[in-house]
Each structure stands twice: as C-alpha cells, then as structure tokens.
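Training component of the fellowship. As part of building independent skills, the fellow (R.M.) carried out the full modelling exercise for a liganded target. The chosen ligand was zinc ion. The inputs are recorded below so that the supervisory panel can assess the work.
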Amino acid sequence: MIIKPDKEASLTLGLRALAKRLDRKHLLFDQISKELLQAEAGEYGEKFIMKQLEKLSFVMKIYVLHNITLRYPLSFQIDIVVITPYEVILVECKNIRGNVELKNRPRQMIRTLETGERRIFHHPEVQLEEYVYNLKKFFNQHYIKVPVNGIIVFPFNNVRIDYEDGYFPVLTARELISFLQQRPIKEKCIDAYAISRFLVAHLQSYEVYPLCRYYGIEIEAIQPGVFCPRCQCGQMQWIKRKWICTSCLHTDQKAHLLALQDYGMLIDKNITNKQAQHFLQLSNRHVIKRLLTTSAYYKVGATKQRKYQILL
Ligand SMILES: [Zn+2]
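Fellow's submitted model of the complex:
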C-alpha cells in the first residue's frame, strides 16, 4: 500500500522557480540549472520505482512512503521507504546514465558518458549508510525494534554498472520486485502497518526554503514580476482586474498566486504590501492589499507592518 503518495519534492519546485527567475549572468546560474536537471531526473526515476512498488503491493503486504523527512538529530530526507512484514528497507534512487563505476577505496561513483566526459560523484552508499544509521537510532529512541536495511536502485537500463562489492545491494528497478519477493523469510514478523503510521506521525517538513538563503544568492539577482503561466516567457500586467500577458495576451485572474509562491520559496514566506508591490510589479497598494487578503494568506502583525504569510 502506498501510504504517502509521491509529491514533487520541495527542492525541485524551488529550483524550478529559481532557474526561472535568477539572473542569467549570475555566477550560480549554471550550477542551479544543473541541479534542477539532476533533481528532475531523480524524481523521474523515483516515480518509476514507485510504480514498480505499487505493482508489488498487490501481491505482497508492503507499505511504501516516498520523499519523507524525519529528524534524528537533524533533518534527513529519504527517497523511498519500503516496510515489509520483516524489515524496513530504505531505497536510494540514482537516476544517472552512462558507464558508472562504484569504487570502494575511496568510495566514489565515477560516471563516464559516451562523449568521454567523466564526473565524480559521492558514492550513494555513504549517504544511505548515514540514513540507515539515523533511522535505526530514531527507532531506538522510540523503543521500536525493527531491522533496517538499504538498497541502491538505478531506475533505468541506460546505465552500465561496474560495481566493487559494497555494503548494500545494487539493483535496477526491474529487479526490485523479485529482490523484495525473494528476501529471506524471518521467524519474527514486524507490525508493518503500525510502523508506517508511526513514521507518518513523525514526518517533518523539509526545510530548504528560502532558497536564496540556502544558496547564498542576493535577493536583487531574483527577477520580480508575474510570469505568464501559458507562454512562460511573457510578463503579465494587472489591467482591469486581471493579469494580461504582454507577449501572448493570455489573461488570468490568479497568476499572482504563482509569483507569490515563488517569492515564498526563494525569498521569504512572509511578505509586506510594499514588498508585494515590488515583486508583483504593481504599485497600487490598495489592489495589492486586496490580492493579498483575498488569497489564502494569513496576516501577521499590526496594520502598519503587516506581513502576509504565503502558504507553501
Ligand atoms: Zn503569455
């Protein structure tokens, strides 16, 4: 059973907004674009793995959680958690193509593309080891005794893996079902349902926002304005109670909501009337007040310095 359905990770959403609004000439622009591509590829891979697990859930009693954040002692985010009748398995998904060497000493993942381009990444095992350790400690802290294991999964067949024996099994997503079905049956069962509920009850929100602070990007490098949801490239102007795209003439009454979401993810989740005037590029404070109060934003503070909280 899929307990927590996959929802786009907050980092990917934020990176998309950042790549859209960051000054093209900014020093970090190329890095942000690369990170966005990686994050999107990662999510695509995870979705494929989730589909395989969903199929398995019809024939085997498993519970699956996707993109969960827990705290021990600091926040850590796990791609996919599978709870079987005997154990908890953390799935570290690596959507990467090319020739991949997983080296042991030192632990590195080296990827070579057809073009000969080589790149060295962190070995996925290092992170997975940390997460398995953290989750074990987290369970211990709550007096729950369950075996916790990990596997590294490459979702697609676009990778040739050269693997030096390591601590965790390495699989492709197609092998995942048979791997889980063939796990040795143990004498002692665990209460998989109760553990899944326990994890859901302890989920934390993944605090990566605001991304400008996270990446050390100055606010001035973020392009303000309401972007057209249809053509993506046009800026919109508020004319006669609606937003009109200067490029494709698309009209929209709620396009400011997307812009405010961007503001919340990139700059601050609280916004004043004055800041909203600048970010939405609309200098009428009465209109801004109406847009902010009629949206799903809470007011924080007294009238003069009133801040509106953007719900992310
Ligand atoms: Zn447009």
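The panel noted the following from the submitted structure. The mean pLDDT is 90. Residues 224-309 form one domain.
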